[in-house]
Amino acid sequence: MRQVAAGVWVATAEIWTSNTVVVVDDDGAALVVDPGITPTEVDGLAAAVAARGWRVAAGLATHPHWDHVLWSAALGDVPRFATPTAIAALAGDVERGWQEASSAAPGHDRALFGALTPLGSAPVGADVPLVPPAPRGCRVVVHEAHAPGHLALVTRGVLVAGDMLSDQEVPLLDVGPGGDRARAPLDPLGGYRRALAALEDAVARYDVAVLVPGHGAVAVGRDAVAARFTADRAYLHALEQAAAQPPSGHAGCDVPRTVPDERLADRWVAGEHAAQLDFLRARLTGR
Ligand SMILES: [Zn+2]
């Protein structure tokens, strides 16, 4: 684990540069956010927390994708908070999530997978405080980008963004569980933009200077944090423009059909990009 701010530590898993965040209060009470990914890594995290004399007081799952709802008995039997919307979404799709977890990171305890406690009322776009047993000074911003009931944690000058604002992944829209378009939100692009606005408001309101994405490098400094927002908005704009063009296009058209973004050099990210471009085109043409 490495410290990124006073009381905020980050552990990075070998799979997909996945980041787990540990927030520690003065009395050693710790909040563990999105522990992952393999059982060995999660157990190692528990051992590292114990070795520092901290005690896990609560967990937090940013959103209902399988790699964000893992746990280990070694972390203790504590409430693991998530939004009611996220918990409902996971409940409706838990077997698929468990199969994905078992395939990519075998050996987790099925009984602990996604065993989450609903947060109290948290309107979309608002930021609300986490209550004990979570450490003091933790707030969550609830939004509708990427997955149902996604939240970000803001604490101690750090934004823990979940699966947004990554230097490795372009914005990944909520295109329905497992790509089931019938269950996708009506306006995933608009929801994503509103989420970016809500998070940027929180960055300004709470003087955030460090951003930890769910996957990828930590952004340190206000300029680096702002650059993540700029890059994600530019991608969404280019994606929307490209979706408005027919796939083969017309000669002489000055609206770009391609999306320039260095994150698309990754083969998996490029595949996700192609899928959401096709999703948006289908929505526009009523397919
Ligand atoms: Zn996700």
Automatic annotation (TrEMBL):
InterPro entries: Metallo-B-lactamas, NDM-1-like, RibonucZ/Hydroxyglut_hydro. GO terms for molecular function: hydrolase activity. It comes from the Bacteria. Keywords: Hydrolase. SMART domains: Lactamase_B (SM00849). Coiled coil: none annotated. Residues 17-215 form the Metallo-beta-lactamase domain. This is MBL fold metallo-hydrolase. It comes from Xylanimonas protaetiae.
